[in-house]
Amino acid sequence: MSTAFESQSASPDAWSLVGSLLWDRPREVSYHIIDVLGYGTYGCIYLAKTVSSLPNFTAEYKAIKCLSKRGLSPSQLLIQRQEIDLHLSLSSAKNGQHVNIVDMSSVIETKDSLFLVMEYCSGGDLYDAITSQHAAAADSGVGFAAPVAPKGSDGRHLNVHSDNSVLDAMDQIISALIHAHRHQVFHRDLKPENVLVAGDGSLKLADFGLATKDRISSDFGCGSSFYMAPEQQPPSSAGARRPYLPAKSDVWSLGIIFLNLRFGRNPWKMSRASADATFAAYINDPKVLDGMFPELSASALHFLHRVLCVDPNDRADCFEALELLHRIDTIVRKDASMEDCGEDRTVSSDDSSSSYSLSSSATGSSKSSIDDSSCMSLNGSHRRSSDEHDSIFHMEDDYGAKKMQPNWSLVSSAKSWSDMADEEEMDFSQPIEFEQQQQEVPDRFPKLSDMMSSMTTAPSVAAKVL
């Protein structure tokens, strides 16, 4: 009996697989696991290098996401496979592999694990790029600092202090989102931690662990609180709530990311009026945002007011968001004074005596401190503790990840991922009916190899290792 690993280590510890060879039989290639990039509740990320005896073979680095199947219920296994289904559909050669979405080239299944082989993004994640550059600016004492391009980088390089660079970054993220939405894949967890930086400086959308194909959803609290749309927030009571549109909730996240990029902070801690005085003030008067960021140009403010519209029915979709982004001539007004660009922002709600201060000068902050403050950590002092997983593929801090119901998967649709790739692009002109019923899940739980059997396009192949 063959095995996926040529080493004899069977320890569940993530580091025990370092040095092992993962064999991908259909591709006739092995992946030599050389390091652990990150780990969390649901698995870990490895750095691997391809090895093959094929002629003219060029070795390359890959990121391999390992998902454990041990001890998972059928519904949890469905959620695992849903991530694979959706990500593979966006890596389909027929659908057009988008340059700003992390490519998944292969899936290898063993008795206890699933290994998702993806392109390696050596620049880390967008969160680290944002915080490190804003920290350097704060340390410089002049409000900005020119970032140093990585050694060997010959492509674009993000500069959060440059309007053109930030607009380019947003263009990449929105373009990736449009590609996903056209193929009816809604991310539901857009945030800088889930945008990776490739070696050439380009940005790649990653981690589809909370994604869905449902045009409407009742998975409230699914995502990360800072970037979650108001209608997506966890219910504060047991009362019934109207389902939300994941396509529109994704757009809300774009607005928060935009402010993260250019100013290194969030406008509020949570988009729930009862929990956040700043957001409550914004609901009463959206122009509160103008006062919080007085340096913003009129075109940038218009973009933000459209994507951060509290009513999802009036909120822009991703197509309009991209069009409005292209109309932004400059993010920061050319006549903005240094006083306008100060970091302290205090907003008082008319119906609350409490005030909400946004300050980027706090010391001793860390990545986890975002949960305790409305501004991002900018002092660069953060070091991950031993029990904190890497952010490259966020798998632990997401609200609703453990309780999310499998609204859609290949099992419930009775389709292979390649069948899904053959479907026409989503028609956004069709009205959404909230009375749509979820399809029943059949009793039979298929093997991953059965689901992938119809795949004919290369190089996205899935290997079943016995």
From TrEMBL:
GO CC, alphabetical: nucleus
Keywords: ATP-binding, Kinase, Nucleotide-binding, Serine/threonine-protein kinase, Transferase
Region (Disordered): 340-391
Superkingdom per UniProt: Eukaryota
Positions with biased composition (Low complexity): 349-377
Entry annotated with the keyword Transferase: yes
Keyword Calcium in record: no
Molecular function per GO: ATP binding; protein serine/threonine kinase activity
Domain Protein kinase: 31-329
PANTHER family assigned to the protein according to its UniProt record, in alphabetical order: SERINE/THREONINE-PROTEIN KINASE PLK (PTHR24345), SERINE_THREONINE-PROTEIN KINASE PLK4 (PTHR24345:SF91)
Name of the protein: Protein kinase domain-containing protein
Native source species: Dissophora globulifera
